[in-house]
């Protein structure tokens, strides 16, 4: 019997004798670390979240729903949903195409494309909004041409959509690229040998393998699209009832000292965040189950 095997055989007896497990932290250390984490979460997450809902309902349930039914608030809610409904599918299409190209093929400019995908993570949202103003504003590069054709992008819905798409487009691609790279090309190559077309390979092989990662990226993209403030604030013009999204409307109400109405709209954003968190947990579990299944199949 080798020395390693002897050590393994003695491990249960060592634990049975009451000695400390060498690969586990002492119980006091685990309790301290867990307590610190729980206190941090309570102070910086649970308490502020509870305060939002407390302030939202402080004047009663009737006032809460009146604040949400206000024409300006309702316009902000509809605009937020509209922008997310446009930006998320666009980012979904881009993320799928970019991740498939980067993970499955070798081509010139591959590294550059990967770098450009990460660009919104390194650029301030306010700067990205100013870039669109520089391009499409009245004094911008394309401003005179847009004015001649009676087309408005800045201080209108198209500008808000562009800014939102820019700050959210890395999320889907960044979730799918490492997942596709880890899976490799074996299944796609086998399907190609069997005569499947490119579309059939993508629809029946690639897409089912990344469905949970795709859902995870879409959830994160949607959450950022609904909660984006910086870039949208620059390009919206803060036209009340027309170009104000929910985060911008919360700011306006708060600056007007209408705190209960501001927290009412903020609580709706918080509810959307909680729903997003629940969907995120479902997607994470799905990804874990899929990864375990693939690992078991590879071992067999």
From TrEMBL:
Database matches in PROSITE patterns: ABC_TM1 (PS50928)
Any GO molecular function: ABC-type sulfate transporter activity
GO cellular component, one term: plasma membrane
Function: Part of the ABC transporter complex CysAWTP (TC 3.A.1.6.1) involved in sulfate/thiosulfate import. Probably responsible for the translocation of the substrate across the membrane.
Gene: cysW
UniProt cross-references to NCBIfam families, sorted A to Z: 3a0106s02, permease_CysW
Keywords tagged on the record: Cell inner membrane, Cell membrane, Membrane, Sulfate transport, Transmembrane, Transmembrane helix, Transport
Location, primary (coarse class): membrane
KW Cell membrane (keyword) present: yes
ABC transmembrane type-1 domain ranges (all copies): 77-280
Keyword Cell membrane (UniProt): yes
Protein's name according to its UniProt entry: Sulfate transport system permease protein CysW
Membrane topology: Multi-pass membrane protein
Subcellular location: Cell inner membrane
Domain of life: Bacteria
């Amino acid at each position: 019997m080798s020395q390693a095997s002897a050590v393994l055989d003695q491990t249960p007896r060592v634990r049975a004798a009451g000695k400390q497990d060498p690969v586990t932290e002492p119980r006091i250390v685990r309790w301290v670390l867990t307590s610190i984490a729980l206190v941090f979460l309570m102070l910086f997450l649970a308490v502020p979240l509870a305060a939002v809902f407390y302030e939202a309902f402080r004047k009663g349930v009737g006032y809460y729903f009146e604040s949400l039914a206000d024409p300006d608030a309702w316009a902000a809610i509809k605009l937020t949903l509209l922008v997310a409904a446009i930006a998320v599918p666009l980012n979904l299409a881009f993320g799928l195409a970019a991740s498939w190209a980067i993970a499955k093929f070798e081509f010139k400019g591959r590294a550059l494309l990967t770098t450009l995908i990460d660009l919104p993570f390194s650029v301030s949202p306010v700067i990205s909004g100013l870039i669109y103003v520089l391009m499409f504003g009245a004094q911008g590069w394309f401003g005179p041409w847009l004015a001649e054709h009676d087309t408005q992008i800045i201080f209108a819905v198209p500008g808000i959509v562009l800014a939102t798409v820019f700050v959210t487009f890395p999320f889907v691609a960044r979730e799918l690229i490492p997942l596709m790279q880890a899976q490799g090309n074996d299944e796609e190559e086998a399907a190609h040998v069997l005569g499947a077309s490119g579309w059939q390979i993508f629809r029946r092989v690639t897409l089912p393998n990344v469905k949970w990662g795709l859902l995870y990226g879409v959830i994160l993209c949607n959450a950022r699209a609904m909660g984006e403030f910086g870039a949208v604030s620059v390009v919206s013009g803060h036209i009340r009832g027309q170009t104000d999204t929910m985060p911008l409307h919360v700011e306006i109400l708060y600056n007007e000292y209408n705190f209960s109405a501001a927290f009412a709209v903020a609580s709706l954003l918080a509810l959307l965040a909680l729903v997003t968190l629940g969907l995120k947990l479902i997607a994470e579990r799905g990804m874990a189950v899929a990864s375990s299944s693939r690992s078991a199949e590879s071992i067999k």
